[in-house]
Amino acid sequence: MARSAASSTRVFTRFRAHSVLPGFNLAMGFTLLYLSLIVLVPLSALFFKTANLGWGGFFAVLGNDRVLASLRVTFLTSLAAAVINAFFGLIVAWVLVRYRFPGKRIIDALVDLPFALPTAVAGITLATLYAPHGWIGQYFAAQGIKIAYTPLGIVVALTFIGLPFVVRTVQPVLEDVEAGVEEAAASLGAGRWDVFRRVIFPAIYPALLTGFSLAFARAIGEYGSVIFIAGNMPYISEISPLLIVSKLEQYDYAGATAIAVIMLLISFALLFSINALQWWTSRRGVR
Amino acid sequence: MKFPIKRLALLGIVVMLSNAAFAADVSILNASYDVSREFYKKYNPTFVKYWKQKTGDNVTINQSHGGSSKQARAVVDGLEADVVTMNQSIDVDILAQKQLIPVNWAERLPNGSAPFSSTSIFLVRHGNPKGIRSWADLAKPGISVIIANPKTSGNGRYAYLAAWGSVIKQGGKAVQARELVGKIFANVPVLETGGRGATTTFVQREIGDVLVTFENEVGLIKQEYGADKFDLVYPPLSIVAELPVSIVDKVVDKRGTRKVAEAYLQQLYTPAAQELAAQFELRPYDAVIAKKHLATLPALKLFTVSEVFGNAQQAQTEHFKDGGVFDQLYSRK
Fold this sequence. Notes:
The structure holds two protein chains of two kinds. Chain A folds into two domains: 19-51; 54-286, Orthogonal Bundle (MetI-like fold), CATH 1.10.3720.10. Chain A has 14 helices and no strands. Chain A has helices spanning 2-15, 24-51, 54-63, 65-98, 104-110, 113-116, 119-130, 137-142, 151-176, 179-187, 192-221, 226-230, 240-249, 253-286. By secondary structure, chain B is of the alpha/beta class. Chain B folds into two domains: 2-114 and 244-269, D-Maltodextrin-Binding Protein, domain 2, CATH 3.40.190; 117-241 and 301-330, 3-Layer(aba) Sandwich (D-Maltodextrin-Binding Protein, domain 2), CATH 3.40.190.10. Chain B is built from 17 helices and eleven strands. Chain B has helices at residues 2-22, 37-55, 68-76, 90-97, 110-113, 135-138, 154-169, 174-186, 195-203, 215-225, 249-255, 258-266, 271-279, 287-292, 305-309, 312-320, 325-330; strands spanning 25-32, 58-65, 83-85, 116-125, 145-146, 210-214, 230-233, 238-243, 245-247, 283-284, 302-303. Chains A and B meet through helix 7 and helix 13 of A and helix 3 of B.
């Protein structure tokens, strides 16, 4: 009796991976319910609405050159902004973790501001600054560079809203890499560049990639700040979320959700490949 | 002797209850477009007073503001608005299509259910350095024009239709109208998504030589930014931008607010409300009031959407639907 009870328990624990923590069933059930309500149900509603179009209608939306142009603008500017954020966000995180200086806490708090600011306010403020007569824009205008009302303006807005992602994902990981490790590497004869490349970078690389993909994903869906600075010229600086809105203005719900579905699929594919890349490199690291 | 007191108390409760039944508290929700905020803020208290005097009821009026089409979509999707006050008739038509109101909604109140209207006019830099006088001037090379995106803004839509209609009303053909509108939009450096955004671009970012917008928006700009920085230019010919209103039958019947909702809209036609509208530079329907305000709302040569385009729905389908004339102006093919 006792043995069979024990063995059945063992079978059961194997199914749910052994853990000393209680409450697996409850927590797992809650997680599934919560994710379904918050994420899966709305997303499947999106697909259902799009289904009204049929395949023909869907491909008509997908094949429209204006839609394609907007997708290109959206994804290229988002990518540019995410790359900029990955580079400069890393530097900001580095400075905040490795050095002590007066006002450090204030700078640390500043990083989160783009999260707190309503995006429309951010967009209006940036457009004012970078417009040809704006505080910053006038110096660029003198060089013949237009920032506001061009795709460049979009990149500026997306860089602004995406900044906290990289800093906040890299920062805690960087804090875990003890300075002693670097000193050890240095004492073993590694140059500064080698220390960074061989010791620090491998440790923070997964976090950096996560921050990058978060910033990238956030930028793709951004509407509020971009429309104020983009100029919204068709084929040049018109983003896909704006096309969604203009379809909604015509009460074309199915057409609007079709663009949303396309964006969702592309984003999913990109995020999936980033994750796959991370998995692949971490396996290589083990070997 | 204790009895009468109890009875008195009971009577008191009955009286209080019946009083409450007589002086009911009702509330209605007005779903409106963005820049009507200032007008209804002033109008609502006058209606509350009127309704209290007439029926003894206390009415609370809740306001919801947003883009006109966005508001219409919200009502279609279940926002329980008792009345809608929009800036273009297609946003009320959609409620009829979804069977929330009868198709003849426009006939229920005077003047096609539009108690007031606006029109598209020009705002230029002080002194009008580029000498802009007419729609044709907007199409000249080297002129930078700010118009909101007609795909997302009623304001931009009327500006587009006004330019198009100016050609037709002067005996031109559709080909010429299209050429003019095409040239005007080639001069538009930024397509803001809403009328207010276009104002900001022109006024604060100092982009463009001329802003095409609603007359009542110009009034607000002068108030906000000073009357001396800009000049008003009335084009020789422009469009009537009707601002239609309607009760939402499905909602008022469900909530039992039909009477108060109907009165709320009817009162918009009274001289007092018309006077108030004129103060906000909305063109009153009442000719007597309109005459009093000729200094700020001068008589203009105006045409309606129906005169040139059949009706608002046809204008929408032909010009602003995906792949319509407006999209073709930007098409690269």
